[in-house]
Amino acid sequence: MARAAKHRHAIEGGYARGEETRARIVTAALRMFGERGFDGASTRDIATSAGVNAPALQYYFDNKEGVYLACAEHIVKRVWERMSEVVVRAERAIEEDAPDERLIEAYCDIQEHLARFMFNSPEASDWRLFMARMQAGEGPAAAFQVIYQRINGRMSKVLTTVVSRMLGRAPNDEETLVRTMMLSGQLHVFHVARRTLLTKLNWDTLDDRRLNLLTRVVREHAGVLLRSMMKIRDGAGADSVRPLHGKRPASRMRKKTAAGSR
Questions:
Q1: Does 250 reside within a domain?
Q2: Is residue 231 packed enough to be buried (19+ CB in 10 Å), middle (13-18) or exposed (0-12)?
């Protein structure tokens, strides 16, 4: 897996305050790549925006792709600092074969933490366009792999596993994957539609009360949908909640069998 170029420590006569300079370049690059895309952002423009000369950028990152990879590494580091505790706690619940309600709470905790981070973090706001362009396929594929494998992949595995337990289906089952993606889609409004949400609600700022309202709804929606999946699994309420393929819902015995085979 490709990784961003390692920081080169300043030497005598070299660039002073190396870490500060490197961080300033990454911050400027995240904004520039978001606004103009990978092809539209030149290394010269990034250097100018960061307040350094062009050779400084080459010194720390080699080339534009190196800067882009460093942006991905920076996002990974910051997101994991914020999300690691709640993700690890959910992983532990899965490993311990915790009861359904504990798994649901773990799932909801992850979604609430993500929502708060994406909607209330000034730094995350600076990444919004960068991430949107990356999701659309812009920029080096290696940067997407850095984020997906080291953050999205790990969280996705946890969320998919919880959904699979609620459904009584395998984690790689198509219905499991579709339902996981649809359930996670409610966070879209926090990631790319912030302005639309604030405009629709006629909010000029996001205070604690409003953020608490948003995250409470995220938790409630996730909990309701996960519990509806349990009804599919247990054969209860099958007439009102049907699986995508239209077949008979899995029974509780099937869930126990599947759990015993792990």
A1: yes
A2: middle
